[in-house]
Amino acid sequence: MFEYHCKKILIANRSEIALRIQQTCKSLGIKTVAIYAPEDAQASYVYQADEAYALSLQGFQAYLNQEEVLAIACQARADAIHPGYGFLSESFSFAQKVEEAGILWIGPTADTMLLTGDKAQARALMNKIKVPINLGREFKPVAFDLDRAKECAQELGYPIIIKDSLGGGGKAMRRVERDVDFGAAWHAVLSEGKRLGFSGNIIVEKYLVDARHVEVQIAGDGERFIHLYERECSVQRRHQKIIEEAPCRFVAQDVLNSMYDAAVSIARAVRYRGIGTVEFLVTDTGRFYFLEVNARLQVEHSVTELTTGVDLVALQIAIATTDRLPLSQRNITRTGHAIECRVYAEDPSKNFLPSVGVIDFLKVPRGPFVRVDHDLCAGREITPFFDAMIAKISVWGLDRNTALANMRAALSDFVLSGCITNRILLSSILVNKDFVLGRISTDWLANGDVLQALCVNQVDHGSSAIELEEEVVVAAILQQALELRAHAQTAARETPGQRSAWRRSQWK
Ligand code: ADP
Asked: DSSP readout, 405-459?
């Protein structure tokens, strides 16, 4: 167990990640403080905390109210604040206020967050320290820069990608294929960035077609820096990850070694304190390009935990409270293979339209190598007010094939009725030949034909290994049918108004 100095932590987050952080705090004997919006009043993380405080605003805005969150931390006499991911986790101004209030911020310093939070500044740093970056330039988000940006796109050659330099979560970015579409995409990025409160400068970058997203987990205490290997996150929809694995079996080890070196050199350059992730895109020729640094815990941290045995939340708490990295590079070894699937309340067959409803039945997979992070139960309402990710299923296996088999079983054991989820899509991906053989890229799911084939559960019969998995798909379809029947029974008891709302949320 790592050394730490802390008695009480306020978790400035909700749902599964709040529960995840509580788990580590409990194992360390640290008391936890939960905060909750009215919509979350019945959530388990609220009940499982040692103390819980209601927030005054509604929905996600409640968790972004810096003054109120800080006031609660002071009132509860918390020694530290853990931001989880999303919400305030990448707000350098909040980290600064927390530090000024004499409370420990469980994350990198505000200065590091300021630097890494801006993709344009981060690109400039990479240039300086000779980490490869993709071709591209930065522009002011004003009309007179639009023409210069367009010229830049022509020079780079299409496709290109336009991004808000302060953007995140796959938002405020557009891939552009043709010159005629540049202006509309530019304005779309500007307005989305404004709506979501990013509004940084605008980056125009060469779009790397069919690249893989591979990221390296780093940790440091400002003096010493290590990596905890890589995660592959190429299965994405709308530039957002849905399946992640560790290790990445489809990039040569010498390329991965260079990526570890690059990631650690970035940590050294910014005297990184805490844990973080350096994201890269890797082309099929094995060239890699820096994408961004995420100065926080990642959603997909579970696959690193399962393969290295390191509790990343405990590591964060140890570094923040002792200013010392309790591990050296030679302590980090990894075993086997881990996969995470993100369960979203959304309908993949309808362009990933978010789905809402009240959960009327829930069965969560169990097993010696299965971990499910969630804050769900029957009766809980899935509302449109928060991110649509409602659970994360992670599995471990001695090798990739075993991990794939464990994940297929886990997915077929996950039953949720009351709203649509992407579970069938995940199951279909897990038996897809291209996925099994690693012939994927960040563009893979964006291909309408691939997505349609996956949504209707078409299985490639070309390989016997895949044929074996057909049973899994059939089981999954049967389970979906059972779920729909459960819906139908519920709907029969409902009023016509309720029923049409139910129909709107069905898989079509
Ligand atoms: P965010 O901060 O919103 O997560 P990133 O810059 O990390 O944005 O990129 C998210 C995803 O967008 C990447 O994993 C990749 O799929 C896609 N992407 C971003 N930049 C490029 C690029 N230059 N070429 C190809 N894909 C890109």
From this structure: HHHHHHHHT-EEESS--SHHHHHHHHT-HHHHTT---TTTTTSHHHHHHHHTT--
Q: What is the tens place of the pLDDT at every residue in 377-403?
A: 999 999 999 999 999 999 999 999 999
Q: Are 372 and 393 in contact (CB under 8 A)?
A: yes
Instruction: Return the closest-CA partner of residue 415 out of 337, 480, 505, 469.
Output: 480
Whose Cα sits closest to atom 6 in ligand 1? 291
The per-residue pLDDT for range 470-496, each reduced to its tens digit, is: 444 454 445 445 545 555 555 555 443
Question: Annotated catalytic, 371?
Answer: no
Q: Which pLDDT value is given to residue 142?
A: 87
Residue 454: its pLDDT value, please? 85
Which candidate, 493, 490, 235, places its Cα nearest to that of 505?
A: 490
Instruction: Based on DSSP, count helices (H) and strands (E) in the chain, helices before strands.
Output: 19, 23
For residue 435, which amino acid is it? F
Distance CA 211, CA 231 (A): 14
Quote the pLDDT of residue 465: 33
Token digits for 300? 């997909």
- Looking at ligand 1, which atom is closest to the CA of residue 213? 14
State the Cα–Cα distance between residues 274 and 108, nearest whole angstrom: 5
Do the Cβ atoms of 20 and 77 come closer than 8 Å?
Answer: no
Where do the H-state alpha helices sit in 171-252? 182-195
Ligand 1 centroid distance, CA of 164 (Å): 11
Helix locations, 37-142, DSSP H: 44-48, 59-62, 66-75, 92-100, 110-116, 119-129
Tokens of 313: 């939340």
Q: What is the mean pLDDT of the segment spanning 456-474?
A: 42
Identify the pLDDT of residue 490. 53
